[in-house]
Amino acid sequence: MLRAVGLVKSYRAPTGKPIRVLAGVDLTVKGGELVVVTGPSGSGKSTLLNVLGLLEDGDSGEIWFEDARVSGLGRAAKSQARGRYVGFLFQSFLLLPSLTALENVMLAARYVRRTGGATRRRAMDLLQEVGVADRMDHFPAQLSGGEQQRVAFCRAVLNDPPLLLADEPTGNLDDANGAVILDALRGRARAGGAVVVVSHRPEASVRANALYRLRGGVLESA
Prior knowledge:
Layout: E1 2-12, E2 18-29, E3 34-38, H1 45-52, E4 60-65, E5 68-69, H2 75-85, E6 86-90, H3 101-110, H4 117-129, H5 145-157, E7 163-167, H6 175-190, E8 194-198, H7 202-206, E9 210-215, E10 218-221
Parallel strand pairs: 3-8, 3-9, 6-7, 7-8
Antiparallel strand pairs: 1-2, 1-4, 4-5, 9-10
């Protein structure tokens, strides 16, 4: 489902010196696989996820979603590719405070121009599956961190994307809520999705089909 070849990404330090964050990263993730990437703080894990998800451009290298080469596309084409192929789950939840839990989940459907009763029912079913259906009419400020991340997970998978990218999805959660999210991600892989998780938490690796470590811009099997 996801294939990255030779990804290179550098930033320029305040001194003007370039800092290479990704140094020729190769990664393949098939449908049904959950891959976990670990590494020390500042090692470039989030940058890798952003490049894979077309939120940032790499300096060189190729990214393929299924049989489509998506690296090097223009802005509009990248946006369409993200909407078709990718779901995102972030550490900070990124729920809109003025929308209810249900409305936040359904927001994802706007990006693929999907509306109607079927979309609403799917959103409600997803909230039921992760145990927060009784909170669907509450606003983010009325939800715990664990509940907010469950809502964010439902939003990420509403459009049934073949690829799910999760950046420290349990970083702001306690162990119990973290386990719920990791189990949901594992379930997504079991259902045939390709899942990439960036995490520093050891328990994430227990659910992984493959574990990698990013160090010095190089992705190595851990």
